[in-house]
């Protein structure tokens, strides 16, 4: 089904002034939680029985407040693991501090994307930025996790999905969650390594949840279902996880980067659309035509407002899970 853009997104896609996108969830009050008990904004609790260390990250992008709504509620309710260790982390607090519902797109990061700085070269290097400093603070905690779930949300209309580094252990983790029922394995971004890529390189299990529209209550609810299920599956919360229908697995086959300022999709595609015919025209980029490279091509998170050098869409092929 083609995407219906609300007036705010239609204006954003066209590069024209428009109203701010609607923000239907309240900005969480993190003041009681900023200090943390293991690092600033990071809370970690040991259960009374042995088990894995599961780390759940929110605010990797400062404007994606849905994950912070969930973790703030869990902290307020006093959620504690019955086994293993549970860490709840508000990642980019400095970007979140600038979150403004009147311009909610603006506060993704302060100086650079926190989710592109996880190369050991960068982390150990001389670079200085708000995000690198934050990553260095959180690095020991994050590297001590056996399993990590990174909570994200989306600006452009798209079906929810789990993004997995292309490693069997991470893919298996994504498929085990069953919510949302789609795992997309990818190679990450050329522009820098994500938290999940860093953990995958260390042999850990990590997936990134793109849970739905940034500022919708349903996105928080989906995050809670996925994160709770993760904790039940690994014994950190008591009781068995509900059985789920099997998930689908797709692997990214091509990443389309805009080269010209005139890059334009032929219509506002919705993430999750599957184009049956190979060679279907999806966008033009100056004189270049962008067509699907294979049949049943899954469109992964099209960015309807691009600029040269920006990933406009990733294309994926379904595989046997
Ligand atoms: Zn994000």
TrEMBL record:
Keywords per UniProt = Hydrolase, Metal-binding, Zinc
Q: Which segments constitute the Succinylglutamate desuccinylase/Aspartoacylase catalytic domain? A: 50-154
One of this protein's Pfam families, by short name?
Answer: AstE_AspA_cat
Q: Is the keyword Metal-binding in the record?
A: yes
One GO cellular component, as annotated: cytosol
Look up the record and name the cofactor or cofactors this protein needs. Zn(2+)
Q: Does the keyword Hydrolase apply?
A: yes
What InterPro entries would the database entry show?
A: AspA/AstE_fam, AstE_AspA_cat
Extract the GO molecular function terms from the UniProt entry: hydrolase activity, acting on ester bonds; metal ion binding
What protein does this entry describe?
A: Peptidase M14
Question: Organism source for this protein?
Answer: Rhodovarius crocodyli
């Amino acid at each position: 089904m083609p995407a219906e853009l609300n007036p705010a997104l239609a204006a954003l896609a066209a590069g024209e002034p428009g109203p701010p996108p609607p923000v239907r969830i309240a900005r969480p009050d993190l003041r009681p939680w900023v200090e943390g008990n293991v690092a600033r904004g990071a809370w970690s609790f040991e259960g009374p029985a042995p088990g894995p260390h599961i780390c759940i990250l929110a605010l990797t992008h400062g404007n994606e407040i849905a994950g912070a709504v969930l973790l703030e509620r869990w902290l307020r309710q006093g959620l504690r693991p019955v086994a293993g260790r549970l860490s709840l982390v508000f990642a980019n607090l400095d970007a979140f501090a600038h979150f403004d519902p009147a311009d909610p797109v603006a506060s993704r990061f302060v100086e650079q994307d926190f989710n592109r700085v996880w190369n050991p070269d960068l982390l150990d290097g001389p670079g200085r930025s708000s995000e690198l400093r934050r990553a260095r603070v959180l690095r020991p905690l994050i590297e001590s996790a056996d399993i990590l779930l990174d909570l994200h949300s989306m600006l452009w209309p798209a079906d929810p999905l789990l993004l997995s580094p292309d490693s069997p252990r991470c893919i298996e983790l994504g498929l085990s969650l069953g919510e949302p029922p789609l795992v997309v394995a990818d190679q990450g971004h050329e522009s820098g390594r994500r938290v999940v890529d860093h953990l995958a390189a260390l042999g850990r299990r990590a997936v990134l949840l793109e849970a739905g529209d940034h500022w919708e209550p349903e996105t928080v609810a989906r995050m809670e279902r996925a994160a709770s299920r993760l904790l039940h599956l690994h014994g950190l919360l008591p009781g068995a996880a509900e059985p789920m229908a099997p998930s689908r697995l797709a692997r990214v086959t091509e990443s389309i980067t805009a080269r010209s300022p005139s890059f334009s999709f032929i219509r506002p595609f919705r993430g999750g659309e599957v184009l049956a015919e190979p060679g279907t025209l999806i966008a033009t980029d100056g004189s270049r035509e962008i067509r699907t490279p294979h049949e049943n091509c899954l469109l992964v998170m099209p960015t309807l407002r691009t600029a040269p050098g920006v990933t406009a869409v990733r294309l994926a092929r379904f595989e046997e899970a």
